[in-house]
Amino acid sequence: MKITVYGPGCSRCADTERMAREAVAELGVSAVVEKVSDIQAMMVMGVLSSPAVAIDGQLRCQGRVPSRDDIMRWIREGSGDHGAHCTSPGCRCGGGD
């Protein structure tokens, strides 16, 4: 799994990157967290405001600092490990629905 945090390097972007790393560690998943500050790369991804977070190339949020719970949910969704912890509306994993 690849988690990408997009942003120019402000404190909000740093907070988002830190929370992503903490979420990966807490969940014990195999994931690479990268920080992208290149404006061209952000434009290619469709990032219009920062910070932004993508999981495996899918943009999950932009323009706000997501909560750690948001990031953990996205990681679970991306890894297929929803189980009993899943609270995603419409998810068909058989977890929390």
| CATH top level label | Alpha Beta
Q: Output the CATH homologous superfamily.
A: Glutaredoxin
| Count of DSSP strands | 4
CATH fold topology? Glutaredoxin
Which strand order spans the largest sheet, edge to edge or round the barrel?
A: 2-1-3-4
Radius of gyration: 13 Å
Biggest sheet character: 4 strands, mixed
Termini Cα gap:
25 Å
Q: What is the average per-residue confidence, as pLDDT, rounded to a whole number?
A: 85
Q: What can you see in these coordinates?
A:
With 97 residues, this protein is an alpha+beta fold. Helices cover 37% and strands 20% of the residues. The protein has a 4-stranded mixed beta sheet, with helices on both faces. Helix 1 (11-27) crosses helix 3 (68-79). It is globular and about 30 Å long. The two termini are 25 Å apart.
Which helices and strands occur, and which strands form pairs?
Elements: E1 2-6, H1 11-27, E2 32-36, H2 39-45, E3 52-55, E4 58-62, H3 68-79
Parallel strand pairs: 1-2
Antiparallel strand pairs: 1-3, 3-4
Helix pairs in contact: 1-3
Characteristic terms for this protein:
Glutaredoxin, globular, disordered C terminus, THIRX-like_proc
